[in-house]
Backbone:
């Protein structure tokens, strides 16, 4: 084993890969990732390491055509060529993978394989494959059917950031029940979400976000079928459906998702009133994003959620007019967006005191008022948006690592000199808006 991956950005290996590697004929594992080989070609002589089982050349700034002689490495179990700059590496086809009969992990993220019409047939011939990552590969064709499914041991499949412009293919549901991770986000998929997802009985993470999917969320999506019957103890833990054209009443789907850790349905056309009863079984939930739908959260002032959220996304959900008191029970969140939420109230002191761990806070476009505290000791806060409220106080101080600061259209007053002095220490600020104040 030879591990020369860079652990520190300031100590990357530079130049070309040396022929001296051939003095290690029995090498089984080679890791040159996270280095800077200055857009040199992947050296052909690496393909002479006939006993190699694990080869990692990811994020190392290689370029050019992938050597087809990699297909001669019959002992290879994992190959990672991802992250070498967008489309700096390319392959005219994937026929060379046919020889990799032992391959379990293939990662080609960012490699251009737009001309590889045979890509699915090629990877389907890898019977031991456990993980396949072909994200951002300029793939255009997603076949809808496979005559014979070979990679039945596949657990993780990532085809995100491609340009398929098709419906979700049928062959996905023929993969063995061991499949646990599926990412088809940003693939220009259209059509409806098939009921057949219930066949993937071990699926733990499903990402269909940023597509053109329409219709309702299938009532069987959070369930799976077992011996002809629907089983409610689904394995699904992460569900990402944001940025589609989904419709329907969300409360009809919520009960099937109570086992989730992540639920993201932001930026759709869903509607309905979400009550505390529908969240009563969500004890595992850690990330919730219902933003930019037509939803209202109807809970009592003394409601205590059964979960501790780390990410809270409720932009454009009706939460007001009172400030949501249930947030007082949430002690672990690092990101919160309750903008455009119809809140007309004073922000309570206990909320500002929660800000010690917050990295992202958006309270914009409400009618909030009250005193805004000194944030300078809250060293994690990097993005703050208080735009268009009724805050009336001297301009507060902020941490030196602040990146985004929107305070426009309030009644802040006083000089900005102290703000400029603090933020110039790290020079981290990217966006600053203090307009329409005093």
Residues:
């Amino acid at each position: 084993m030879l591990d020369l991956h860079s652990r520190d950005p300031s100590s990357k290996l530079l130049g070309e890969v040396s022929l001296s590697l051939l003095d290690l004929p029995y090498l089984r594992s080679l890791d040159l990732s996270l280095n800077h080989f200055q857009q040199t070609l992947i050296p052909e002589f690496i393909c002479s390491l006939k006993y190699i089982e694990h080869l990692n050349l990811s994020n190392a700034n290689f370029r050019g055509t992938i050597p087809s002689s990699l297909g001669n490495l019959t002992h290879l179990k994992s190959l990672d060529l991802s992250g070498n700059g967008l489309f700096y590496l390319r392959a005219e086809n994937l026929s060379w993978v046919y020889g990799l009969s032992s391959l379990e992990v293939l990662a080609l993220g960012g490699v251009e394989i737009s001309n590889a019409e045979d890509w699915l047939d090629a990877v389907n011939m890898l019977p031991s494959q456990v993980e396949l990552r072909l994200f951002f590969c300029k793939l255009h064709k997603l076949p809808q059917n496979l005559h014979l499914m070979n990679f039945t041991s596949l657990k993780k499949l990532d085809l995100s950031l491609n340009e398929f412009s098709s419906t979700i293919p049928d062959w996905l549901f023929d993969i063995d029940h061991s499949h646990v991770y599926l990412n088809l986000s940003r693939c220009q998929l259209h059509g409806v979400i098939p009921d057949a997802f219930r066949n993937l009985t071990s699926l733990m993470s499903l990402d269909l976000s940023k597509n053109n999917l329409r219709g309702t969320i299938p009532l069987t999506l959070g369930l799976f079928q077992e011996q002809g019957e629907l089983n409610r103890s689904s394995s699904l833990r992460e569900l990402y459906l944001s940025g589609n054209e989904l419709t329907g009443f969300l409360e009809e789907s919520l009960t099937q998702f109570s086992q989730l850790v992540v639920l993201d349905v932001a930026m759709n056309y869903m509607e309905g009133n979400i009550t505390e009863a529908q969240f009563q079984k969500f004890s595992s939930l850690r990330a919730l994003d219902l933003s930019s739908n037509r939803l209202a959260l109807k809970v009592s002032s003394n409601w205590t959620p059964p979960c501790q959220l780390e990410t809270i996304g409720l932009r454009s959900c009706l939460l007001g007019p009172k400030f949501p008191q249930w947030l007082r029970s949430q002690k672990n969140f690092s990101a919160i967006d309750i903008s455009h939420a119809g809140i007309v109230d004073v922000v309570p002191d206990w909320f500002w005191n929660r800000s010690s761990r917050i990295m992202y806070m958006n309270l914009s476009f409400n009618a909030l008022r009250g005193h805004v505290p000194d944030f300078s000791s809250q060293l994690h806060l990097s993005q703050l948006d208080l735009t268009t409220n009724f805050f009336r106080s001297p301009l507060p101080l902020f941490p030196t690592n602040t990146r985004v600061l929107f305070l426009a259209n309030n009644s802040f007053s006083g000089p900005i000199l102290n703000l400029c002095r603090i933020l110039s220490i790290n020079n981290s600020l990217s966006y600053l808006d203090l307009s329409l104040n005093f």
